[in-house]
Amino acid sequence: MRPQPLRAEAAKLRRAPIWVAYVALPVIAAAIGSFNYQQNLDALTPGWENLWTQHTLFELCFFLPALVGAGCSWLMGLEHAGTNWGQLLASPAAPWRIVASKLVVGTGMLAVSLAATGVLFVACGWVVGLEGLPSARYATYLLMSWIGGISVVAVQLLVSALVRNFAAPVGVGLAGGVMGLLLMVKGWGLWWPWALMQLASNSNGRGTIAPGELVPFLAMTAVFTIVASAACSHVVARGAVR
Amino acid sequence: MTAIMLELAKLRRKRVWLVCLGTTALCLMWMAANVTRSAQGSPDGTASLLYMAPLVNAIVMTLFAAVISSRVCDVDHEAEAWKELLCLQRAGTVFGAKLTCSLMLIVGAVTLETAGLAALAAYKGFTDQVGLAELASFAVTQIGPCFTVAALVQAIALRWENQFVSLAVGLALSLAGLFSLFFSPVFQRLVPSGYFGLLSRVRMDWDPVAQVVSFHTIPFAWGDAALLAALCASIITVSARWFSRKEL
To answer: Which has the closest alpha carbon to A84: A98, A97, A71?
Structure first.
């Protein structure tokens, strides 16, 4: 991919500190999750495992997909304003490159949020009196959540390309997260992009992806990402310019 | 009235009613997924539904309020219509009309949700079904916090053209509202979305020895309702005053 569209996306982010929200959300989840953990020590088994579920259950199931929706809305909203689509498509950058660069930026912002979640998890663990460092598997949960999250970013970019409204894709993100939780309980999580992030994170403490599920997980992530990005490129090339 | 009709006309092709329907469907689907675990004709099925609804609403309805409030304000940001609009209408009228518009959508969504809850309870044949007065009381306790969130988000959506800010605040309120339900009432009172649980009239008892869950009804929390009304009035007063002095 030529770097110009990516540079352009990065330049658009320069004076729009939306990354603050991507850090603030894990901060709120960590603060309240740690407090809740402390308050329920008589009912919980003290340890990193229970602190992890307290920190990530609601954040990764409901709020991060919605925040990704807001971020993607912002990325697409910039082009929906005025005649920006016309100008962008008149530039020597193919529509798929524009979509790919937005996908890279969107997944980058998701990485910021997941990295903040990881750092806050360790820091809050020390604050609540847990000793040492958590096992490396939590880093794997975050990495796999990020990989699953790429498909969420791709689908949300498609939704935001189709719906010019800024707010509605955020609702779609939340609805996707809730449906993901319900489908994950039924064992159909692999078939729903929003559930992939939850599946990998072990946020409900029921275990992460089994080794045998790793290939289907990666395959479904790739399928959702490629199909949604291709559809998004098509929408951008044909329908977005009005 | 003209101002409200004008605001509704601006939303005509924005599919906000679809957002209302989608939100209600999501809430009901979520509750229906849980209610399937209750036995047909369960003696406390409706109570469990009325207990669960504020929890679901703290997440979904809070964000719904933020979404519609942001949408109602964004139509004029998109059209860059503020200068023209505020030459023709008083700032207070525009502010009030937008808030009323949000309230109408909230009332629509919560009424649909309440009707859906009653239908779910009837379908499952729960023996503790409640009357219209109880359902109306439930709806009022859910509309109040939802409207307060909408008022707060409207203040932000009018202040900043970038709607990411108002939606991020909506998300934060949603997250804080959900978590507040697990804390003491003192903490819940600090968050507008915490009032979904505070005003709920159904409480749960958990017997850890017998591993049994039971529900009981409490009287309407007039004190908390008054506190929420005061909070809502303060938010509206401050943001309306700020909006009327806004430099265009």
So the answer is: A98
Contact yes or no for A58 and B182 at CB 8 A: no
List, for residues A65-120, the tens digit of each pLDDT value. Answer: 999 999 999 898 888 877 778 887 888 888 889 899 999 999 999 999 999 999 99
For B49-68, what is each residue's pLDDT tens digit? 999 999 999 999 999 999 99
User: In this structure, are residues B138 and B50 in contact, taking their beta carbons and an 8 Å threshold?
Assistant: yes
Q: Which of B33, B71, B175 sits opposite A167 (nearest CB)?
A: B71
Binary contact (B22, A70; C-beta < 8 A): no
- Which class for A122: exposed (0-12), middle (13-18), buried (19 or more C-beta within 10 A)? middle
Residues 14-43 of B with CB under 8 A from A: 14-15, 19, 22-23, 26, 29-30, 33
Q: DSSP character for A166?
A: S
Tell me how far the alpha carbon of residue B73 is from its chain's centroid: 17
* Nearest chain B residue to A58, by CA: B175
**pTM, full prediction:** 0.83
Contact with chain A for residue B63, Cβ under 8 A: yes
Find the Cα–Cα–Cα–Cα dihedral B101, B103, B108, B114, rounded to 10°: 170
CA distance B192 to B155: 14
Q: Are A50 and A192 in contact (CB under 8 A)?
A: no
* A14-50 burial: b if 16+ Cβ within 10 Å, else e: eeeebeebbbbbbebbbebbbbbbbeeeeebeeebbb
| Contact (CB, 8 A) for B185 and B175 | no
